[in-house]
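Example 3.
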Amino acid sequence: MIVALAGGVGGARLAVGLAAVLPPGALTIVVNTGDDFEHMGFTICPDLDTVMYTLAGVNHPQTGWGRAGETWNFMNEIRRLGGADWFQLGDRDLAVHVLRREALHRGLPLSTVTLDLADRFGIRHTILPMSDTPVRTRVKTMVGGNKGELAFQDYFVRLRCRPRVTGFRFAGARSARVPAALARIMRGCVDAVVICPSNPFVSVAPIFAVPAIRTWLKARTFPVLAVSPIVGGVAVKGPAAKMMRELGLKPSTLEVARHYGKRVDAWVIDQRDAHLRERIAHLDKPVLVADTLMTNATKSAGLAQRVLGFAQQLKNVK
Amino acid sequence: MIVALAGGVGGARLAVGLAAVLPPGALTIVVNTGDDFEHMGFTICPDLDTVMYTLAGVNHPQTGWGRAGETWNFMNEIRRLGGADWFQLGDRDLAVHVLRREALHRGLPLSTVTLDLADRFGIRHTILPMSDTPVRTRVKTMVGGNKGELAFQDYFVRLRCRPRVTGFRFAGARSARVPAALARIMRGCVDAVVICPSNPFVSVAPIFAVPAIRTWLKARTFPVLAVSPIVGGVAVKGPAAKMMRELGLKPSTLEVARHYGKRVDAWVIDQRDAHLRERIAHLDKPVLVADTLMTNATKSAGLAQRVLGFAQQLKNVK
């Protein structure tokens, strides 16, 4: 059993690769829900949907969110009627949100709803939210000398990541309830945990912030491998590099490795960062250098294969 | 002040005519909410939306429900994902439903939500639901010798009006709360009430079933005029004639006039039913013969003009 920890795009791309090379039943993708929020009466789960749409092959190939071939007649009408139009909900995307709300309203936990939706999309691997109770990422900011705190989507979508970040808070994390299906997996035999190339601060940190997951990882008997989300000093997608700078860290694979510290046992870094191999190895972390830019499904599967081979190697050493 | 009582299409068409010839502030359209139901987490108000869309000029000209130039990408996706697809919600139509649910969820009464939506559509006349609390039409049926009771939309949409009707029940009517804005109008000076050519059993009867409205109409000092929904023995639209037959009534303007009895003071009947003029007049009801088939906005306005002239005449006589 391989457990992948995933945020949005980077997570989804590696998940697609892992799903291509692992049989159903041998892969669980645990997805960040810190970005989730309530909007227009819907529970929006950006990372869960990105992973689900990508695994189903219906994701928009460019944007990193939403559906391919999406239409916007609902949204245009909302705009015409003076409704909130800062967060885009496509006509097809709405179907998932309506079904999700109905099911949550019936009292089903988010994990059950997620498994059901994935099933409707024909996905045979297991996608689970990190928590069945709301965990909400709050972004601490400094704007013009004034401290502030923003809901994640306010920061990410409405303000387009412009405010300077000073830290994060994961509201609800302390009392987060891990899905029963995930608790079962954590009690069972896990071969490796793979941290996908997702934002360390707002995609992976919220997962670590869930007490049951943190405790489980601390007491691990399996290796934790991480694929660096920083390649050549820049984030492949999203604000990770900008956040690192604002937090006083140099955006680099090395700095990300230092940031994760003991939480990661081995690193997969991009070939463009091969020169950092020795310095990361000095942190006592085995390093695999690979082509980590998953620009298509074949490259995703290729990287997944190498990551899994590396995990096998580490296990044999242990 | 003219108060129109309206159901769906017939109500909407006369309302458009009345709106064309009356200044805003001189027309209130009270709409049946007995057809309303909860579906996919939305409060669906078929008659309110038909009236609103028609007054806004965005209604579908053929179907009698929904929007012109509607698209179905949401619905097709719901179907693909195995969701409930028996009730059609178009992509543009969804905008109204999402905004309505949000507002109702904030605790606003349906009347406030309706006035706000109408405002967003640029409608300058007053559209009000007959009740701010749920009234739900239940259709009593006889199928294969078995008595049954159906929710209105189950009867109307899912079963396409096939079951034989034996009666109706308006659940919630007894405790229905008339909107504050309507209560104000009822306390004020009303020149006439116009019953639009809507289904007597499932569009107008639910409005009569609201105690405050019934009491107000009983104690009236203004004339109540009705435009017959039956023309030449058939319903212009919908199951009114079928229902009359099943209830043991001959589908005719005369029978409708008998059915309404004292609740109506004067009748507007179609020129195709001119031969019934005398027999209706024998019920002690003044009759106006007119072209009541409102196949376009000009004809709607023409009929409205004649109805209002007739009301003026009746008032002068009184």
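The CA atoms of residues 38 and 44 of chain A lie 6 Å apart. Chain A is about 40% helix and 20% strand.
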